Amino acid sequence: MRTTGEGGVELEVFVDGPEDGTPVLFMHGWPDTHDLWRHQVAALAQDGYRTIAPDLRGFGASDKPVDVDAYQLKNTVFDMLAVLDATIGDSAKTHVVAHDWGAAAAWGLTAFLPDRVHTFTTLSVGHPNAFRDAGVEQRARSWYMLLFNFEGIAEEWFEQNKDLMLASHPDRDDVVKALAEPGALTASLGWYRANAHPRTLVSGPIDLPRVTVPVMGVWSTGDFALTERQMTGSKDYVDGPFRYERIDGAAHWMQAEKPAEITALLRDFMQERQP
User: How far is CA 159 from each of CA 36, 116, 176, 262, rounded to the nearest angstrom?
Assistant: First the structure.
């Protein structure tokens, strides 16, 4: 189905499972689409959950605005509200499962709108201020974020180094093919240009309400981009229950590399906090 998000952006949304099932909203990150969650969606829909997996703006079959400001995280928060309103109604709650940039946006969704969220599971990316607190090691791992801010140069660099950048992605060939479509790579980099500008290196902490819903943070030992500290430190910004899980032997895209393990964690966490 398609629905209209913030600013008139059209979003493609994939819904599965019984209509009366407990909702689970899946939010992917760069450079993916809803398909990154295919293993978890199939398993949870069979369990009786109502799975909702949109292509976030700039990715997949959703619109790809040319204005960089369109990719500010707040716009994705509003997008997800539109998706929820269209799929489960304007007051119903959902479990939220998110990864990478989707997780960054989901921290905002969960902090500002806890009345729409049962639980929040974040893969790879911790709270924005825990990311900031993680120090020099995290800044060093984030070098590519600054590179991606250079329009034209970043696109050319990626074309020359895509095999290196996506070496650990289980779906690398499909991702490269999708990014080769006209405008797709530049649209995807809009997320970095709108939210990871060099000025963020010297800006203060992000002013977010404290998170009050149950949170599970999942980090994988082979993640080249993110430190464990930025995930474990997220508990300092959560007033609700906080659970931490470490996945050994997986890289950044753990839900595709170790799908059974991630699905088992989701089942356990959501059943434990079942409304």
Answer: 22, 40, 9, 31
